[in-house]
């Protein structure tokens, strides 16, 4: 448990430090508020990628759970990359809606796969 907690706390501290540094840069006139939002939201997307990459590596005793972890990990990595890409390149309105839709789609894929496994369906 502690092995999983420390890297997550480091990510949280890093995100807070990044947000504070970006806010300071905005106050000093180096960034505008849009740039601060894009940097912080893009970092959140990269955090989703990191978490998704770690998911399949977590030990779970059941073969079904390992299958669900692999699909969940892939869907989180892909949706995190899309989320970060939207915040890096798209207009803000599109980034909000597109990023949220990407994460929601990743969650839906994972939930759908878990339900498919639970009902006795063979994995695709």
Written overview of the protein:
The protein is mainly alpha-helical and 124 residues long. The longest helix is centred in the middle third of the chain and has 27 residues, at 63-89. The chain has helices at residues 2-27, 33-54, 63-89, 92-118. The two termini are 31 Å apart.
Radius of gyration: 17 Å
Order of helices and strands: HHHH
Q: What percent of the residues sit in helical stretches (DSSP H or I)?
A: over 70%
- Contiguous runs where pLDDT drops below 50 for at least 5 residues: none
The span between the termini is 31 Å
- Oligomerization state: single chain
* Alpha plus pi helix count: 4
**Can you count the beta strands?**
0
Features:
single chain; 124 residues; mainly alpha; 4 helices; 0% strand
Outline:
This protein has 124 residues and is mostly helical.
Fold topology:
Layout: H1 2-27, H2 33-54, H3 63-89, H4 92-118
